[in-house]
């Protein structure tokens, strides 16, 4: 019995030892398996969020790695092998490192571009400041020199080359762009005309068949451009003058006027594709005869203020010269407008009428005398030439007949209608020895065609609307012009050998283009050519007769209206067919 008990205890001890060994062996095997199959240690975050998921597109990664499912390096893996998680992780780490390097490179490039842009902006600002100091006089240049000595010598030398290059570029663009002085042109076709604009409208010459003579700035870049120009102009007008400007303006009346967009009257602008854009803006001043004139220039860069000048027109008299032969009914209509605009509204006008021949001379004299009595107007001169009509001859005689010093001349025709704003535009855009003004007037179409017959024509004042169907900018005419008498005499006047209609105005225009005077050519919204029937006489030379007929054709109607007239029979036939169709359906 004792022997059996001892045998049982020994068996239990052996079983417990064997069990412990088995447990120890299992733990060792488990630890060894974990150490063998676990991924290597990495400082990167876990990639479980980028490992392939069942049913997703990432499951196709095996195709990229081995060329087929379960293939790595082009060899097929055993069917019982576990997925290549380690290979996935290595590939994804390589891709992540490539993207990280690419993003870092982009950030460096962006930072470099920002630095270059900031440096270029600072250089342009320094050039503008340098230009302001150059125009500010010796005191400003002395102050600039003192500031330069205060900085480091190396910094000054580093910026100097860039400043000189940019400054030379800006000055060359200013010189080329006909801003401060005129440029000689070979012919009238080489001139880049201005466009005029107000706060709401643009008045442009190049219309084609889709654009209108008066329209709002449609393109956003044009609106933004004019908005920036207006902002810079108002800021310049409302900025207090510098000490140097105050010393230069000593003795002049100071003003505390705050300029707003409502003070803006009109502006003109043009862009020369190889030079830049020029802007001239006119604002109302302290009185009805005072204006502020700003000239800005954009040489394909930031805006530059060229001039800010005060223009006083209180004592600027305009001598309006009108050549005339018969046409007394048109002259009475002209005097009706003259009496209202020039006498009652403006009051700074002299009228010179050069009449050819003796027929109807008494009617012209009577019209002038009646106007003189009715509105107490004495500033007129009536000259008579007993010879064949020549517009150039009449204007030349009228200009030379003035003996009371230098005067502003406005060469006009009897069928022209203008308002008081145009007279101020004439004064502002001319300067003796420097500038002449060639406005482009708005020419009226035949009112009988526009309004559907002579019985529906409204009064003249209501016809003066700038629209595509009512008229066009007469950009081929150069007869209406504002210039000082001294410039007219110095340039040589008209070619008085030209007889009859046309040609003399183009010759005078070319003379100014060949001179050093600045020629301002821009559409004027206050100057109209009233329609009248043209008669091209057979006695005209072939070139003049061709010009007369071209002008006659363009004066009748717009392109669309002429088309309706040309196809009128076809249109009427179509309308008759349309009326007959309902009757045929009823039958």
From TrEMBL:
It catalyses: 3-O-(beta-D-GlcA-(1->3)-beta-D-Gal-(1->3)-beta-D-Gal-(1->4)-beta-D-Xyl)-L-seryl-[protein] + UDP-N-acetyl-alpha-D-galactosamine = 3-O-(beta-D-GalNAc-(1->4)-beta-D-GlcA-(1->3)-beta-D-Gal-(1->3)-beta-D-Gal-(1->4)-beta-D-Xyl)-L-seryl-[protein] + UDP + H(+). The keyword Repeat does not apply. Residues 124-145, 245-256 have a biased composition (Basic and acidic residues). It is a single-pass type II membrane protein. Residues 124-164, 234-257 are annotated as: Disordered. One of its GO terms (molecular function) is glucuronylgalactosylproteoglycan 4-beta-N-acetylgalactosaminyltransferase activity. Coiled coil: none annotated. SUPFAM superfamilies: Nucleotide-diphospho-sugar transferases. One of its GO terms (cellular component) is Golgi cisterna membrane. Keywords: Coiled coil, Glycoprotein, Golgi apparatus, Membrane, Metal-binding, Signal-anchor, Transferase, Transmembrane, Transmembrane helix. It is found in: Golgi apparatus, Golgi stack membrane. GO terms for biological process: chondroitin sulfate proteoglycan biosynthetic process; heparan sulfate proteoglycan biosynthetic process. Its main location: Golgi. The chain crosses the membrane at residues 12-35. Its EC number is 2.4.1.-. Belongs to the chondroitin N-acetylgalactosaminyltransferase family. This is Hexosyltransferase. It comes from Oryzias latipes.
């Amino acid at each position: 019995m004792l022997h059996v008990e001892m045998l049982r205890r020994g068996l239990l001890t052996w079983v417990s030892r064997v069990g412990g060994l088995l447990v120890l062996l299992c733990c060792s095997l488990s630890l060894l398996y974990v150490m063998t199959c676990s991924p290597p240690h990495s400082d990167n975050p876990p990639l479980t969020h980028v490992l392939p998921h069942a049913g997703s597109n990432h499951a196709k990664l095996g195709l990229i790695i081995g060329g087929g499912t379960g293939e790595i390096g082009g060899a097929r893996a055993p069917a019982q092998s576990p997925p290549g998680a380690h290979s996935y992780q290595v590939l994804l780490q390589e891709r992540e490192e490539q993207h990280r390097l690419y993003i870092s490179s982009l950030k460096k490039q962006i930072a470099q571009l920002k630095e270059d842009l900031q440096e270029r902006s600072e250089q342009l600002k320094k050039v503008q400041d340098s230009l302001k100091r150059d125009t500010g006089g010796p005191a400003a240049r002395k102050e600039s020199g003192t500031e330069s000595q205060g900085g480091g010598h190396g910094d000054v030398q580093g910026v100097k080359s860039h400043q000189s290059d940019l400054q030379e570029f800006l000055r060359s663009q200013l010189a080329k762009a006909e801003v401060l002085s005129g440029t000689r042109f070979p012919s009238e076709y080489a001139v880049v005309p201005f466009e005029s604009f107000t706060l709401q409208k643009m008045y442009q010459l190049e219309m084609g068949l889709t654009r209108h003579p008066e329209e709002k700035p449609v393109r956003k870049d044009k609106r933004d451009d004019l908005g920036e120009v207006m902002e810079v102009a108002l800021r310049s007008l409302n900025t207090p003058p510098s000490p140097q400007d105050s010393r230069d303006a000593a003795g002049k009346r100071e003003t505390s006027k705050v300029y707003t967009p409502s003070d803006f009257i009109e502006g003109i602008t043009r862009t020369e594709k190889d030079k830049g854009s020029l802007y001239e803006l006119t604002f109302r001043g302290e009185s009805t005869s005072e204006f502020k004139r700003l000239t800005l220039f954009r040489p394909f860069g930031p805006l530059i203020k060229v001039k800010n000048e005060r223009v006083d027109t209180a004592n600027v008299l305009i001598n309006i010269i009108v050549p005339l032969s018969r046409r007394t009914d048109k002259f009475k209509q002209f005097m009706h407008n003259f009496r209202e605009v020039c006498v009652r509204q403006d009051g700074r006008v002299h009228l010179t009428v050069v009449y050819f021949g003796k027929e109807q001379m008494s009617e012209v004299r009577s019209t002038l005398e009646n106007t003189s009595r009715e509105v107490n107007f004495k500033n007129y001169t009536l000259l008579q030439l007993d010879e064949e009509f020549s517009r150039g001859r009449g204007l030349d005689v009228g200009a030379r007949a003035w003996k009371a010093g230098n005067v502003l001349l406005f060469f006009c025709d009897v069928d022209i209608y203008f308002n008081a704003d145009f007279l101020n535009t004439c004064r502002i855009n001319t300067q003796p020895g420097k500038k002449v003004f060639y406005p482009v007037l708005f020419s009226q179409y035949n009112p009988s065609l526009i309004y559907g017959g002579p019985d529906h024509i409204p009064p003249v004042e209501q016809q003066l609307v700038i629209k595509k169907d009512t008229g066009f900018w007469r950009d081929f005419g150069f007869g209406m012009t504002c210039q000082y008498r001294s410039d007219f005499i110095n340039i040589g006047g008209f070619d008085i050998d030209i007889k009859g209609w046309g040609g003399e105005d183009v010759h005078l225009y070319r003379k100014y283009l060949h001179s050093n005077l600045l020629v301002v050519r821009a559409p004027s919204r206050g100057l109209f050519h009233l329609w009248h029937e043209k008669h091209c006489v057979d006695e005209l030379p072939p070139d003049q007769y061709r010009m007369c007929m071209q002008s006659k054709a363009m004066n009748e109607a717009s392109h669309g209206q002429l088309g309706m007239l040309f196809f009128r029979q076809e249109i009427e036939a179509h309308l008759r067919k349309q009326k007959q169709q309902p009757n045929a359906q009823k039958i």
